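re: ur question from yesterday

yeah so i grabbed the chain u mentioned. its 227 aa long if i counted rite. heres the sequnce exactly as i have it in my notes:
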Amino acid sequence: MGAVYFVRHGQASFGRKDYDQLSETGFEQARVLGESLRARLPGVDAVFMGRMARHRQTAETCLGVLGVSAEPRILAGLDEFDHEELIRRHTPRYADPVVLQEEMMREADPRRAFQALFAQAVERWVLDTTGGYTESWSAFRQRCLDALETILQTPSGTVLVFTSAGPISAVCQELLHIPDAHAFQLNWTMANAAVTKVIHSARGRYLSTLNEHAHFEGARRALLTYR
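ran it thru and got these structure tokens back, copy pasting raw so excuse formatting
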């Protein structure tokens, strides 16, 4: 039986010009995750990651602590969806990121305000029937599942996958048979640098754990973030 550990990237740079970079907290989350996995995994047989900088930075930091020298295989199917396009289509004035940032920062809780906006934008995308997006929800979901099939060609052993909450949610939706309208209920609870484990054999593939982040409980609870 094989085991695939899907890792959501560490905290990215919310509110900064380049979101696709780990924050200082994000790097620390990746280091702590590496310590946790080092105690749990006897070895790693293969590594995959998406093309985002935050995927690579999380992988490099975590693997460095683990002492794993394997070169990650890059799969475009593990990339996150274009959240900026979703927001622009939902609220056209946010085509200017400066306007978005200024309005969010005027809120009492900018992260909570952005999350509410983002949830509305994602719901519109998932339920869209106009075909007006560069990548539809169904196309995104399919490429994530295609990536899963590629990963599962590793017949046994332990595989680490560094990606984002969107692809992890799409994989879990498939394994749990969740309707599209409810798929992103999984996404909103995904912690940064959390682990979702899928086990597989000739009999099938199964979700073993979802969004496991015990490494950020107790003394390290200050490292628990969701965005």
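noticed a couple things. The beta strands are 2-8, 46-49, 73-74, 157-163, 195-201, 204-212. also Residues 24-40 form the longest helix (17 residues).
anyway ttyl
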